[in-house]
């Protein structure tokens, strides 16, 4: 059962309530470099990114927001630290949401000006509390870091509510998976605002994907979370791919599933490259199709009989199969092409997809 949360609107994307759990990322370009930032956002859009956040560290970045917004199709979120004037400038530039940690904006009077402007423009705010930037009064809290994250977020929520502002998303991230899980669990019991999940500074592609999958997976499986960002020290396109894999593995978003064997002594081709190529191509499909890439014709079709379509590779060629049953032999250099043609046909034929 998914936790009941109120719904907010970020540009054209709904977050919370019964809306699909949205996958978002953050650019790694200098925001002021509009050409590079727009190019990266478009690449992320193609990979399925549904909301994009950009850092706004200075006036030049704030001035770039309008141009960026005009040249992308997905909602734009401005990430603000320390300088309340940048938040106001971002709101004036027409962003769809801002993210602040109210504890580092420099006083409640400044936070109030941001909240009132966001209210006037009907723009939501994410209260993004991070373990690394907790206010010092919480940093030494005796009850532990998870509770400190929640208490800090709640203090800001109450301040926003006092200004009759409820267009709120909340995150309480840390780089520790157990602390993050505990903080979100506690927070989920206290408020009905939508929650943005993430493990912050999670690491490189492998370690970050594992930490994010474990942390976000536990919470999502408990019904907690309305939007996710997988933080990786890697190309942000990977964040989107990992994010969708997490959601698909839990049945929370539809999409293709790749089944591939780990290979063994029976495999006679470079199956890793083959599986990676098929995996990349599947990214542009939304049909919930199971596709197998297996390393031998003897065991492959049987081991992957739950797959709608698959290829089992042998020396110099392979076998195309469906639901474990052989369809035809295919030369090695045509394996991917033939598989993708069959996937295309199946995606068009099944009305459910
Ligand atoms: S499908 Fe074949 S190559 Fe792959 S693990 Fe199974 S037996 Fe080994």
Total beta-strand segments: 15
Sheet with the most strands, sense and barrel status: 8 strands, parallel
Could you state the CATH homologous superfamily of the largest domain?
Dihydropteroate synthase-like
- Number of H/I helices: 12
Q: Unreliable segments (pLDDT under 50, ≥5 consecutive)?
A: none
- Here the CATH topology of the largest domain equals TIM Barrel
What would the keywords be for this entry?
single chain; TIM Barrel; 20% strand; eight-stranded parallel β-sheet; alpha/beta; 15 strands; five-stranded mixed β-sheet; 42% helix
Short description:
The chain has helices at 34-46, 59-70, 84-93, 108-121, 136-139, 145-162, 177-190, 205-221, 236-249, 271-282, 300-303, 335-349; strands at 8-10, 13-15, 22-26, 51-55, 76-80, 97-100, 125-130, 168-173, 196-197, 227-229, 257-260, 290-294, 309-314, 317-322, 325-331. With 353 residues, the chain is an alpha/beta fold. It has two domains: 8-249, TIM Barrel, CATH 3.20.20; 257-349, Sulfite Reductase Hemoprotein, domain 1 (2-Layer Sandwich).
Describe this structure in words.
Helix content is 42%, strand content 20%. By secondary structure, it is α/β, with parallel strands linked by helices. The protein has 2 domains: 242 residues, Alpha-Beta Barrel (TIM Barrel); 93 residues, 2-Layer Sandwich (Sulfite Reductase Hemoprotein, domain 1), CATH 3.30.413.10. Strand 4, helix 2 and strand 5 form a beta-alpha-beta unit. Helix 8 packs parallel to helix 9. The mean pLDDT is 94. The structure holds iron/sulfur cluster (SF4).
């Amino acid at each position: 059962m998914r936790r009941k949360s109120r719904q907010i609107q970020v540009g054209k994307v709904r977050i919370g309530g019964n809306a699909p759990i949205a996958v978002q990322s953050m650019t790694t370009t200098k925001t002021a470099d509009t050409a590079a930032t727009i190019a990266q956002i478009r690449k992320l859009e193609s990979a399925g990114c549904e909301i994009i956040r950009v850092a706004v560290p200075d006036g030049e970045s704030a001035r770039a927001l309008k141009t960026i917004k005009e040249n992308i199709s997905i909602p734009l979120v401005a990430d603000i630290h320390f300088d309340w004037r940048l938040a106001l400038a971002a709101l004036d530039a027409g962003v769809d949401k801002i993210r602040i940690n109210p504890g580092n904006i420099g006083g409640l009077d400044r936070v109030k000006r941001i909240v009132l402007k966001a209210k006037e423009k009907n723009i939501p705010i994410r209260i993004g509390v991070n373990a690394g930037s907790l206010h010092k009064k919480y940093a030494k809290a005796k009850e532990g870091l998870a509770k400190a994250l929640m208490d800090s977020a709640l203090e800001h929520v109450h301040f926003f509510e006092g200004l009759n502002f409820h267009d709120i998303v909340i995150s309480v991230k840390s780089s520790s998976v157990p602390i993050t899980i505990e903080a979100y669990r506690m927070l989920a019991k206290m408020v009905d605002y939508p929650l943005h999940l993430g493990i912050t500074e999670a690491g490189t592609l492998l370690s970050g994907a594992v930490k994010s999958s474990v942390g976000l997976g536990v919470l999502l499986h408990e019904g907690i979370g309305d939007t996710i960002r997988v933080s990786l020290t890697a190309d942000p396109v990977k964040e989107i791919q990992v994010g969708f894999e997490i959601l698909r593995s839990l049945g929370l978003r539809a999409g293709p599933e790749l089944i591939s064997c780990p290979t063994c002594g029976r495999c006679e081709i470079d199956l890793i490259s083959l599986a990676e190529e098929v995996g990349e191509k599947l990214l542009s499909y939304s049909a919930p199709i199971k596709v197998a890439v297996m390393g031998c014709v003897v065991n492959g079709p049987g081991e992957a009989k739950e797959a709608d379509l698959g290829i089992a590779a042998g020396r110099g060629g392979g076998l195309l199969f469906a639901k474990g049953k052989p369809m035809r032999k295919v030369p090695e250099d045509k394996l991917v092409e033939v598989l993708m043609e069959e996937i295309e046909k199946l995606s068009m034929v099944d009305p459910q997809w």
